[in-house]
Every structure is written in structure tokens, then in C-alpha cells.
Specification:
The structure holds three protein chains of three kinds. Chain A has helices at 2-18, 20-23, 27-52, 61-77, 82-104, 109-129, 131-134, 152-174, 177-187, 189-194, 199-225, 235-248, 254-269, 271-276, 278-291, 296-307, 321-330; strands spanning 140-141, 227-228. By secondary structure, chain A is an all-alpha fold. The chains are: A mainly alpha, B alpha/beta, C mainly alpha.
């Protein structure tokens, strides 16, 4: 029942997004939504790193810049087909993510955050130093996409398609064993290691994935901006991505999506906020951390759970030994049972395996 | 000392053994030349006063510490160089004195996590939701659900783990450890904070696990419980082994009575 | 060559001072605050404002800059650290201090302007002294005095001993009746004062610049991690090393690769000696 309702709202939201160019007022709004989409491609991947695996990367803007410059150079300077360059930018972002993650993901939290921040500053430094490639402080102009994606609408649909694909992938990760492993890494590395999770490998895998989406997002972002300079990729943007996730809520996908949309659109729609700029993001972050550290998305979930509250009953733990015995013997023997065979007398109809209800939005 | 009279009996194969292991923290010797072997299908008790090195020994067996001297062997093969994360894959599972559950996940999710060693699905395949991944997911879910019901948590299977009561948390940790398909299960004070009735259930569960051919190491303060379920008992005091034998031998040993059980 | 060494040591002194401020706050709270570099920035900006803007005499400007730093340090503790430490999530302090640092930097940028502004002369001296100019020796002298003062404070005063007891084991300290909350607040006030003082002393070198904070937060942290978390002597060595490295990198390759080389140093040290040159080896928490 709940599933069909959320399925319906998902379909409606999808329909609204696909048809947006027909009912949105003007090109500026379309550009804004496209920008949200390009940001989201990055944030969706980063969300697995920050919201699920709990690694506080504040410097993903560096990876965004890698993808953006990659696109500008390959598609612009070298004149390759932009649609071919797009996956190349993903690969480039993934490689940069690997380069950053390999030394830094073994470090404790603050060290890691500082390493990602340093990475963002280094990328800016290099984009200034390698003027021949990047145009230095002057920057580079960025080509758009070929038909059918050459119009603002076409570009929007391209971004929408990529955004949907990336969202589906992170959703697939979040609700399966990999998602559980990421949360184990976030909440208790001791517990994670006790079930044999290679914590570093899991972190690195998801970090490289976030590099790929950052590279893709950077390429789309560059195409939207049409011109990029080192100033396009100030450190504050990395902070902005990070804040979107923290506000949206850890361990949620819908929350950060809404966070990205709201935080991108708000300063554009409310002029005083634009003036305050980064101060507003900082203030929002502070309020969320102090008042709802689990994020607004999580707060909504908790309230919803309270509405359909199951009354808490104390329940004596009563082991079902026959079922335990069956489970142990059927768990394909790493070691053959040496004890007595399970008594046949104790029969209890096996319950249908309860399928886990996914709690994620 | 009575420990000296014990033969350092180590099976050539089919066991998890600590061979005269030592561990020091700074200047403090936590363990000194202690040997212990755990065989499949037995319940082995490990008792001793606070600070006698019980948990340190368990941490050595499960790989959280490396011994300063001596060796940990599985089926005769040296383990000390294998990292913590490798041991579950070799069939060594453990629980913690203070349950380490993932509070944001459901009971079933926590139990499923134990089956990580059997996950074959790669990151990309999972992201794309390939059919083989979905099949594997369903299999693991059924297995974990059986274990959750088996330890008596069927009523709470979809509850978030941080809403569980204390006994439920302990039993869920056991279910998660069992989802590893372990050959050896190391339980760190599983009866701590449990009521009498709950300890009786725990005893049933531990015996059932033993009957499944799994070797269980029971680090415990509840000596009644230990003497009731264990086939063999090892006693430590201040990092040294003072008595090893059947429950009756240990219970009546003068040294054990003096340092631990009391007159 | 001598010029490179002197300017390297001078900027290294600022890094070392930031690392000292990190240490003071870390010792009582086990928090590495993102606002640490911003304390120095405040000293520079407010020192310039008090003296050049309001026309106050230099000693008053000094006192004012130190006070502003201490106030913000205390503010950090009350708003960003105290409430968050009570919760179990260990990363929340990173988020809260990051938020405070961001807000402060942006607020100063809006008020003071985003261009670096010159810092007034503190001591009458003409500008032809070259390497003996006060902009070099003032920060170096200040950080040396700060280190010596801190060591004396820890060893000789009651409050210093309270700091140390809290640092070694906060639970045990509280059990013995030490008001650890007040000790922590005091340590943040002290760190703020030190940061303000360092920023003031180095103002002629760094200029009064709103974005200095983030750079110092990063480079001070590198100096700290290289020298060893918790060690004041290590902070001094790490700062000097990093400053010299940056200066020589600029001398040989131009200023373009400064940050890259600084981070390279950090990664190298962390690979070889994760606890830093003089840091204590951490015991694995299980």
C-alpha cells in the first residue's frame, strides 16, 4: 500500500520533470533546474561517501573542476565529440578520486577532511599553473552538446537522463548489501571489521564512484556555464555540496536531493540570501548540526514513523531452536555438523521468509 | 602452579588455538604465555577476575590485537599476520561485550550484514541491480531471517536496532555472528545484564550452536552458566593461566577458588 | 638565499602559532577546530582596524586583537563544541566548527572587504632594514615566547596542571572534581588569545586579509600533523619546516605549486610516521 503510493508519487514527479520544458515559465528557470541536475549528479555520488560511508569530504569541488576542465579541453580545445567526452570525464574524475582516496582514506576523520580540502586548493593552484592547458586565470570557453541536445531543452533532458541513471544506481547500492556495508563503515568500523568488511576497500570503491559522478557532473556543469575559470571552482562550492547532504540527512537519498534543489534555488529566488551567500550555508549547517544532527530528511522520517507508530510492547525473547538448528545445518556447510542430527519430531511450519521492508525513502 | 601440569595439547588439525601467547600494553602485561585451544563442536568457557586478560585473549583470537609472543593457529596454520577483516572469512566470528549493532538499521539488516563474506556481487553489479544480485540478496535475506527467528527475535525483525532491549541486542549480535557461517564463535560476556530466564534461553541457543558443529568460546562472569553449559573451562588470573579442565575440576580447584570463586 | 630562509621562518612561525592554538584546544577537548586559522585572521584584521581604522595606540590595538581572538575562541567552545561533545557522534564537532569558520570568514569578508589591506607599523623602524625588518622577526619572536610561555604555564601554574589532567583523562579528571567544562572553556579562550596575538604580530607579513583563516587552518594543521599532534615542540619544528619548504619551493619553482608541495610533505610524513615527528603513538581503540 505504502509502496504503491510512493510509486505513484515517483511516477508523477518523473512526469513533471520530463515535461518541465513545456510548462516552466522561461529559459532561466530551465537553466536553474539544469544546474540543480548537474550538481545532483555529483551530490548523488558524494552522498554515498558522506551520508552512507560517513567520510566527510569537503573538497569534492576539486573533482568537479577536474571533470569540467577535462570536458573543456577534450571537447573544446581538442574538438572531440562531446557525447564521447562525457564518459571520458567520468573516467577522469574516477582516476582523480582514486588518486585522492588512496592516501587519504586511511586517515582519521579530520585528517581526511583536510586532505580533501587541500585537494580542492591544489586543483585550483594547478589550473592556474598549467595555463597552456587550462587558459590560466583567463579560463576556457566550453562547447555545448551536439543535436539533439544542443537546445536548452535538449541539454536539460540529457542532464535529467544522467541524473536519473545516477540516482537509480545510488538507490541500488543503498538498499542492498553494499549499502549495509557502507553504513557499517560509517557507524562502527569495529562492527564492520567483525563481519569481514574490508573497510578501506569499501571506502575506496565508493569514493572512486563519487569521483566518476563528480567528473560527469563537472562536464555537465561546464557545458551549462559555457565558460570556466579557476574562480568558478572556489572552495565554497565544495562546502555547498557537503552542506546539501548534511541538511538532507545522512543515510537518505531523497533528503540530499531536496537539499540540493532548495539550496541551489533559494539564493536565486530570494535576493538577500544571495548577498549573504556562503554565510547562509554556514548558518544552515550550524543550525542543523546543533538542532537536528541527523538532518531534516531524517527528521521527516522519524515523524512519519511516529505517526504510524507501532506501540512498543515488551516481548520476551523466545528462541525457536528448531528453526535455529535448521538454519545452521542448511547454511551450506563450511563445517559438517558433528552433533546429533536435528530431532525430527519438533515440527513447526516454516514461516514464509519475511522480506525486509526497506526503510529508505 | 597447576597450569604447568597441563599438557599443551594442540590438535594437529580442526581447531583454533592460542599457543603461549603474550600481550603487553605499555608496561602492563595483559597476557603471559597463555595457551588455549578451541575445538569444533565444544563449548569452552574462559573465566577469571576483572582484568585477568579474558577479553585480551579473545581480541588476540579474533585478530584485533597481535600477540607480542606466541602464535594463534587455525587448523595448525599461523594466523597472527592475518588482519581482523580476514578472520571472519576464515570462519571466526565474535560478539562484543558492549553490543556493536548498527542502530539505524533494522534487526534483519543487522543480521544480513553478518553474511558479507558470502556476497559475490560487485559494486557496479549491485548499482545496476543485475538479476544475480537480486537472487543473492533474497538468499541472504532468507538465511538471516531464519537466524533472527531462531534466536527469538522474530517479533522485532523490522524494528530499528537502537529500539531493542538489552537482551534482544545481545541475541541479535549472536544472530549476526552466525550469519557468517562460522566454524568458531567467540562470545564476549553474552550473559551480561540478562535475567535468569534469558540466560536459560541463551544456554539453549549456545548448545544448539554447539550441536551444529561450531566451536564456542564463552568469556563470562556468570560462573553458574559457564559450569552448566561448558565442556571445558580455562581460568585466567592477572594474565596467566591458572587452571584448565572440566567444569568439576575447575570448580573445585583450590587456586581458582582462592583468586576468583571465593570461599 | 638568506632572504628565503628568513621569510620561510617568518611564515613558518605563523603556521607554528596556529599549530600551538590547535594543540591548546585539542588537549582539553580532543577537538581539532576548523576555526583555528581564523583566530589568527581575526588578530590581523582587528589589529589593523583598531590601529589604522580607529586610530588607537599600538598597545591598545594589541590588547583589542587578543581580546577579539579570545572572545571568538570562547564563542567556538560555547556554540560549536560544548553541545556537540555531549553527543556520541564524533564527527559533529568537525561540522559545527566548519560552520562557524565559514560564517566568520564570510562575515569578515562582507564587513572588511575581500581585498588584503596593509597592517600598520608596530615599532618605529624604517623600511630599509631588509631582513632585519620587524615583519620577519616579530612573528618568530612571538611564537618562541608563546611556546616558552605555554610550557611554563603547563608546568608551573595550577590552571596548567588542570589542563594537563583534563588532557590525559577527562573522565578521571571530572571524577576527581576538576570542572572540566570550565577548563575546556578556558583553553579555548587561551587558544583564541594566542591566535589573536600571533595574527597581530604577523599582520605586516600576511596583511589583514579575510581569507587568511582557511589557509592557516590547513597549513597550521599540516605543521601540527608533521610535528606530531599534542607536542608543542613538534608544532614549532613542523611550522618551521613547512615555512622553509614553502619558501624554497617558491624560490625554485615560483609560487605556483606551494600548496601542492605542502600537502606532499604532509602525505610523505603521514606515510612514514603517521604520528608525526614528536607525536605519541595512539593505542588502537577496541
Amino acid at each position: 500500500m505504502r509502496g504503491s503510493a510512493s510509486g505513484l508519487s515517483l511516477a508523477l514527479a518523473g512526469l513533471a520533470l520530463v515535461t518541465l520544458p513545456w510548462w516552466s515559465g522561461d529559459l532561466y528557470q530551465l537553466h536553474l533546474v539544469s544546474l540543480i541536475g548537474a550538481y545532483w549528479v555529483l551530490v548523488a555520488g558524494l552522498n554515498l561517501v558522506v551520508g552512507f560511508a560517513g567520510q566527510l569530504s569537503i573538497g569534492h569541488v576539486g573533482l568537479l573542476a577536474v571533470g569540467a576542465y577535462g570536458f573543456a579541453v577534450l571537447a573544446g580545445t581538442l574538438g572531440l565529440d562531446p557525447l564521447l567526452v562525457l564518459p571520458l570525464c567520468g573516467a577522469l574524475g574516477g582516476a582523480a578520486g582514486l588518486l585522492l582516496g588512496l592516501p587519504s582514506l586511511r586517515l582519521p576523520g579530520f585528517y581526511f577532511a583536510m586532505a580533501t580540502m587541500a585537494f580542492a586548493l591544489i586543483v585550483t593552484e594547478l589550473s592556474l599553473a598549467w595555463g597552456g592547458l587550462t587558459g590560466g586565470g583567463t579560463g576556457l570557453s566550453v562547447p555545448g552538446f551536439p543535436a539533439p541536445f544542443h537546445t536548452p531543452w535538449g541539454q536539460y533532458w540529457l542532464i535529467l537522463a544522467i541524473g536519473a541513471a545516477v540516482t537509480a544506481m545510488t538507490w541500488g547500492i543503498a538498499r542492498r548489501m553494499w549499502g549495509r556495508a557502507l553504513i557499517a563503515v560509517r557507524d562502527s568500523e569495529v562492527a564492520a571489521a567483525s563481519v569481514g568488511i574490508n573497510v578501506f576497500r569499501v571506502k575506496l570503491t565508493v569514493f572512486v564512484f563519487s569521483g566518476v559522478t563528480a567528473g560527469l557532473g563537472g562536464a555537465l556543469f561546464a557545458a551549462l556555464q559555457t565558460y570556466i575559470t579557476p574562480d568558478t571552482f572556489v572552495f565554497e562550492i565544495g562546502l555547498f555540496f557537503f552542506v546539501c547532504i548534511i541538511i538532507g540527512g545522512r543515510g537518505s537519498i531523497l533528503g540530499p536531493l531536496i537539499g540540493t534543489a532548495v539550496l541551489t534555488a533559494l539564493p536565486e529566488l530570494v535576493a538577500p540570501l544571495a548577498k549573504l551567500g556562503t554565510f547562509f550555508y554556514g548558518l544552515t549547517l550550524l543550525i542543523v548540526v546543533l538542532l537536528v544532527p541527523e538532518g531534516i530528511g531524517r527528521l521527516v522520517e522519524v515523524l512519519a514513523a511516529r505517526l504510524r507508530a507501532e506501540p512498543h510492547r515488551s516481548h520476551e525473547v523466545r528462541p525457536d531452536l528448531a528453526r535455529l538448528r535448521r538454519a545452521l545445518t542448511s547454511q551450506a556447510g563450511a563445517s559438517p555438523p558433528v552433533g546429533e542430527p536435528p530431532p525430527v519430531g519438533e515440527t513447526r511450519p516454516p514461516e514464509a521468509p519475511a522480506l525486509a521492508r526497506e526503510a529508505l525513502p | 602452579m597447576s597450569a604447568a601440569s597441563l599438557p599443551a595439547a594442540l590438535p594437529e588439525a580442526g581447531g583454533l588455538a592460542a599457543e603461549s601467547v603474550a600481550k603487553r600494553f605499555g608496561g602492563v602485561t595483559a597476557l603471559d604465555a597463555v595457551s588455549l585451544d578451541l575445538r569444533p563442536g565444544e563449548i569452552h568457557g574462559l573465566i577469571g577476575p576483572n582484568g585477568s586478560g579474558k577479553t585480551t585473549l579473545l581480541n588476540l583470537l579474533s585478530g584485533y590485537y597481535r600477540p607480542d609472543a606466541g602464535e594463534v593457529r587455525l587448523d595448525g596454520e599461523a594466523l597472527s599476520r592475518r588482519s581482523v577483516q580476514r578472520r571472519p572469512r576464515l570462519g571466526i566470528a565474535r560478539t562484543f561485550q558492549k553490543p556493536r549493532l548498527l542502530g539505524h538499521l533494522t534487526v534483519l539488516d543487522n543480521a544480513m550484514l553478518g553474511a558479507w563474506r558470502d556476497v559475490r556481487a560487485g559494486f557496479l553489479a549491485t548499482a545496476l541491480g543485475l538479476p544475480s544480485v537480486l537472487r543473492e540478496e533474497t538468499d541472504l535475506r532468507e538465511r538471516a531471517a531464519d537466524l533472527v527467528h531462531g534466536v527469538g527475535l522474530g517479533h522485532a525483525i523490522h524494528r530499528r536496532a537502537n529500539l531493542l532491549e538489552h537482551a534482544e541486542q545481545r541475541f541479535l549480535e549472536i544472530a549476526r555472528a552466525l550469519a557468517l557461517r562460522p566454524r568458531f564463535l567467540l562470545l564476549d560476556e553474552p550473559a551480561g545484564g540478562l535475567t535468569g530466564a534469558e540466560i536459560a534461553h541463551l544456554a539453549d541457543i549456545v548448545r544448539t550452536i554447539r550441536d551444529g558443529g561450531i566451536g564456542v568460546l564463552l568469556v563470562e562472569h556468570h560462573t553458574d552458566f559457564v559450569f552448566r553449559v561448558c565442556g571445558r573451562v580455562t581460568t585466567l588470573d592477572r594474565g596467566r593461566l591458572i587452571k584448565h579442565g572440566t567444569p568439576d575440576e575447575v570448580r573445585t580447584d583450590a587456586e581458582v577458588v582462592r583468586v576468583y570463586l571465593g570461599a | 638565499m638568506l632572504a628565503v630562509i628568513v621569510s620561510g621562518l617568518a611564515i613558518g612561525a605563523v603556521y607554528a602559532a596556529t599549530a600551538l592554538a590547535y594543540n591548546v584546544m585539542y588537549s582539553t577537548s580532543k577537538v581539532l577546530s576548523v576555526t583555528t586559522g581564523h583566530l589568527c585572521m581575526l588578530g590581523g584584521v582587528f589589529g589593523a582596524w583598531f590601529i589604522a581604522g580607529l586610530g588607537l595606540p599600538v598597545p591598545a590595538g594589541l590588547v583589542g586583537a587578543v581580546l577579539v581572538g579570545a572572545l571568538f575562541g570562547g564563542f567556538t567552545e560555547i556554540v560549536g563544541v560544548r553541545r556537540v561533545l555531549a553527543r556520541s557522534d564524533e564527527h559533529l564537532w568537525l561540522l559545527s566548527t566548519l560552520a562557524l569558520a565559514t560564517m566568520l570568514q564570510q562575515a569578515v569578508g562582507l564587513w572588511w572587504g575581500t581585498e588584503p589591506k596593509p597592517f600598520p607599523r608596530l615599532i618605529p623602524q624604517d623600511f630599509s632594514s631588509g631582513l632585519l625588518d620587524q615583519k620577519y622577526w616579530l612573528p618568530i619572536l612571538t611564537v618562541l615566547v608563546m611556546t616558552a610561555g605555554l610550557e611554563a604555564f603547563y608546568r608551573l601554574t595550577l590552571w596548567g596542571k588542570l589542563f594537563q589532567a583534563t588532557s590525559e583523562d577527562a573522565f578521571a579528571a571530572r571524577a576527581r572534581g576538576i570542572p572540566t567544562d570550565r577548563v575546556r572553556l578556558a583553553s579555548y579562550l587561551l587558544a583564541g588569545a594566542l591566535g589573536g596575538l600571533a595574527g597581530f604580530a604577523a599582520g605586516q607579513l600576511t596583511f589583514a586579509f579575510f581569507a587568511l583563516g582557511l589557509t592557516l587552518t590547513l597549513n597550521g594543521f599540516i605543521a601540527l600533523a608533521v610535528g606530531g599532534l599534542g607536542s608543542n615542540l613538534g608544532a614549532l619544528l613542523g611550522g618551521a619546516g613547512l615555512g622553509l619548504l614553502s619558501a624554497f619551493a617558491t624560490y625554485w619553482f615560483g609560487g605556483e605549486y606551494q600548496q601542492t608541495i605542502a600537502v606532499g610533505l604532509l602525505m610523505l610524513v603521514l606515510l612514514v610516521r603517521p604520528e608525526g615527528l614528536l607525536g605519541a603513538r595512539r593505542v588502537r581503540p577496541v
